[in-house]
Amino acid sequence: MVILMSSLRRNRPLPRESKTRMLAPAKSTDSRLSDWSGVAKGKLVISIDLEAAWGVWDVLTPEQLRLAEEAERPICAALVDLFDRYQVPATWAMVAALLHEPSAASRPGSTTCWYAPDIIARIVNAKAGHEIGSHSGRHIYFGQSTAAQAREDLEFARSIHRAHELPFTSFIFPRNAVAHLDVLAEVGLKVFRGNDVDWTAAARRMERHLGQAANLLDKMLPIPPSPVSTRTCGTLTDVPASMLLMGRNGLRRFVLPGVTRRKLRMGLDRIRRRGEIFHLWFHPSNFYYRRDEQLATLAWFLELAADEASRGEIEICTMGSLANASPERNPSARSAS
Ligand SMILES: [Zn+2]
Questions:
Q1: How far is the CA of 215 from the centre of ligand 1 (A)?
Q2: What is the Cα–Cα distance from 332 to 73, expressed in whole angstroms?
Q3: CA of 120 to the centre of ligand 1 (A)
Q4: How far is the CA of 246 from the centre of ligand 1 (A)?
Q5: 85 CA distance to ligand 1 centroid (A)?
Q6: Cα of 13 from ligand 1 centre, angstroms
Q7: pLDDT digit string (tens) for 200-212?
């Protein structure tokens, strides 16, 4: 643990080039025009739910346990390499128990499915300058929890983040069950990922299976993902999701990479024209099946996004940097844009 902590601390400041990309992208003729015209530049945010077996602790199968043990680490390593190659920072929201070995003791299977300081050290030490966020303490479901249970879980998470000198600013709800926002604010969190705002949200509200079918249909068709804007909820900022990079198991294997690429490109095209946010999200487990195809899709997208950012056409932000820069939170940002 001492080795991990020194490793985590060693590279605490973000690399200079990553800060530059996030906060002050290179100027080009296009960006000067958009600044001059008063239209905010489009922003790309990528958030990743880092959970290993904690993500399925309540519905665990032997196959999921096997994949968490065998696939999670190589996939996280490949993802970190990809983000480094294109110098794109992301928000990695971690289940805090991944840094708390006693929490793994009562869980089935290998400890490595539940305890992963090596993965988190790799992310913290990456050149891209990622943000570490929170995906709760032990992946409890806030929609089914009392305020006291939510507070206990978040206080545990905060203690782990503090012990390792990790930020505790951005939050992603387990299973996207948004609830107890007042408790999030109490423990000092500043920003959370709200739910997708596309047409499938209405189906999800009506019936869970209808929502799942609509979600799959949406991913199979070249329907553009919805751009989003930040929303202020008291002291918190909501950065809603635009698009999930879906896994490729079961029926999802019929989601063609070409369609996914077209949707990703449309997501960037839309924010470039409208100055909004494209918020892509996924779990490492979304790469468990058809891994090479999935990684190739992400690499293609990161190259595209990095190229557009280098030309000043978009900005690449983490959830935390976006919340700090939001006009609602920072009036000077409003007058400057
Ligand atoms: Zn999760």
A1: 17
A2: 42
A3: 16
A4: 14
A5: 26
A6: 27
A7: 666 666 666 666 7
| Angle (nearest 5°) at CA 273 between 272 and 277 | 50
* Domain extents in the chain: 43-335
On the question of pLDDT at 298 being above 90, the answer is yes
Distance from C-alpha of 127 to C-alpha of 18, rounded to nearest angstrom: 8
Give residue 174 CA to ligand 1 midpoint distance, Å. Answer: 4
Longest dimension (CA), the chain: 59
| Confidence label for 26 from pLDDT (cuts 50, 70 and 90) | very low
Q: What is the pLDDT of residue 251?
A: 63
Q: 32 C-alpha vs ligand 1 centroid, how far in Å? A: 40
How many whole angstroms separate alpha carbon 66 and alpha carbon 113? 9
State in Å: Cα 14 to ligand 1 middle: 26
CATH fold label, 43-335: TIM Barrel (3.20.20)
Give the number of other Cβ atoms within 10 Å of residue 257's Cβ.
14
Residues in CB range of 61: below 8 A, 6 or more apart: none
Res. 14: pLDDT tops 90: no
Per-residue pLDDT averaged across 9-17, rounded?
39
Rounded distance from Cα 123 to ligand 1 centre (Å): 18
Task: Give the pair of three-digit tokens for residue 72.
Answer: 């999670």
CA of 137 to the centre of ligand 1 (A): 11
> Ligand 1: distance of its center to the CA of 133 in Å?
13
- Provide the token pair at 127: 């050149």
- pTM here is 0.84
**Under 8 Å between Cβ of 170 and 110:** no
Tokens matching residue 189:
């969190």
pLDDT of residue 325: 67
Confidence at residue 179, expressed as pLDDT on a 0 to 100 scale:
96
**Which pLDDT value is given to residue 53?**
98
d(CA 140, CA 148): 12
As given in the structure block, the two tokens for residue 44 are 């790309």
